[in-house]
Amino acid sequence: MQELTTGAPFHWLGAGWADFRAHPAHALFYGACFWGMALILGVVFRTKPEYVMSIASGCLLVGPFLAMGLYEASRRRESGEAVALGHTLFCWAPHVRSMALLVLILIVLELLWGRASLVVFAVFFNTGMPSTAGVMDAVFNPDNLEFVLVYIGVGSVFAALVFSTAVVSIPMILDRDKDAISAAITSIRVVFSNPGVLLIWGFLITSLVVAALLPWGAGLLVVGPWLGHATWHAYRATVRWQEAPEEAAAG
C-alpha cells in the first residue's frame, strides 16, 4: 500500500480529465451508456418504484464492465499503446470469471442494503410502505428527523462497504488478473491504509455524481467517464506491485 497525501484525489481527477480529453469520443460513448442507465432508473422510480432495486441490480451488473473499458483506455494510454473502442469493449473477456464473482459480491451487498432499508421503513412506517411521493414527503418532513438519521446511517454503512470493496478491485483485476476475493481484500486494505484520503475521494465521487444528475442526469455524459479514468489513476497510485526477479533483471 502507498502512503497518500490529501491532494492525491485531485491529482487523480486531473489525470482522468487528461485521459478524457485524449480520447473524447470513446469517453462520451461510455458516458452515454451511464446516462442511459440513469434515465431508465429515473423512469422506473417514477412509474414502478417497486422494480427500482431489480433495475439497479441490472445496472450494477453492467456498470463494472463498462467501467472496465475506461480503465483499459487509461491503461493503454499510460503504456503508450493504441486506444480503439474495440480494445475497450471486450477487455473484460479474459477476466470474466473474476469479474462475475466480484459483481455477484456487489449485488449481494446491494440486496442486503435494500433489505436493511426496507426494515428501516417498516419500523418507522408500521401502517405500510409509503408511495413514491410519500417517501419524498417523509424525507423532507422535520417530524421524521429520527427516520432520516437512521436511514442515512444504515445507508452510509453499506455505501462504505460497497465503496471499500470496489474502489480499486476492478482495475486490479484488469491489470493483474487477480481473483475477485484477493482484489476485494486488497481494495479494503487500501481504504484502511489511507482512510482520510479515500474519504475525500468518496466525497468527490458522490458530489460529482449528484451534480451530474441535474438536469436529467445529462452530466453523466462527462462525469461518468471522467471518474472512470480517474479511478484507474487512483488504483495506480494506491497499489504498487513488486517486480518479478526476471523483470528487475531485464530493467
Provide a descriptive summary of the structure in words.
With 251 residues, this protein is mainly alpha-helical. The chain has one domain. Helices cover 78% and strands 0% of the residues. The protein has helices at residues 8-22, 24-47, 52-79, 85-89, 96-124, 132-139, 145-166, 169-176, 180-193, 195-212, 220-238, 245-250. Helix 1 (8-22) packs across helix 11 (220-238) and helix 8 (169-176) packs across helix 9. The chain is globular and about 60 Å long. Residues 244-251 have low confidence and may be disordered.
Q: Which overall shape is indicated by the principal axes computed on the Cα atoms?
A: globular
How much β-strand is present in the residues?
under 5%
First-to-last CA distance: 23 Å
| Overall pLDDT level | 86
Q: Spell out the helices and strands N to C.
A: HHHHHHHHHHHH
Largest sheet: none
Please provide the count of β strands.
0
How large is the radius of gyration? 19 Å
Q: How much helix, percentage-wise, in residues?
A: over 70%
Q: How many helices in DSSP terms? A: 12
* Total discrete domains: 1
Low-confidence stretches: 244-251
Helix/sheet category: mainly alpha
